[in-house]
Design goal:
Blueprint (H helix, E strand, L loop, with lengths): L1 E5 L6 E6 L6 H15 L6 E4 L6 H9 L3 E4 L12 H4 L2 H10 L2 H10 L11 H23 L7
Parallel strand pairs: 3-4
Antiparallel strand pairs: 1-2
């Protein structure tokens, strides 16, 4: 299972991890991604994520790390771990809109980067291939972000 940590301003991949697909793999890797990003000097203040991260344990774990969880509320059939102290802010609504752009990364990795079905066996080789494809995505994205200049 692939996990991407994206910065919201430019849509670049900050970190990409591959883990065994379990029922809680997404929630288990989120604190690790935050900790590793902080070790590299990133100032992680918020973390936007989909409904699968809306559990008491995951939200409490992020808050313990002083990260505001901008997690989509799971409102059908059960109580959400995200309360009004998070959802009342304008930044939550903005973060929820930008959160969907992480799917562009996975779409590009699958369609262009050939990561729909990995060619490698084993977690370590698949991690390396995923990391290289994520790096290629960043290179393509940076070219698009650079101002276009013409030479006369």
């Amino acid at each position: 299972m692939g996990h991407a940590l994206m910065e919201n301003r430019n849509g670049l991949v900050v970190d990409f991890q591959v883990s065994q697909a379990t029922g809680t793999a997404e929630r288990d890797i989120a604190p690790k991604l935050v900790d590793e990003a902080r070790e590299r000097g990133f100032h992680v203040r918020t973390l936007a994520a989909d409904k699968s991260y809306d559990t008491r344990y995951c939200v409490a774990d992020l808050r313990r790390r002083l990260v505001t969880p901008h997690v989509a509320q799971h409102t059908s059939g059960r109580r959400s771990a995200i309360d009004k102290r998070t959802t009342r802010h304008v930044g939550y609504a903005i973060s929820e809109c930008i959160r969907k752009s992480v799917e562009e990364i996975f779409g590009w990795m699958k369609m262009v980067g050939g990561f729909r079905r990995t060619r490698y066996r084993g977690l370590e080789r698949t991690k390396l291939a995923g990391y290289l494809v994520a790096t290629a995505y960043n290179r393509v994205r940076m070219v698009r972000l650079a101002p276009f200049t013409t030479t006369a």
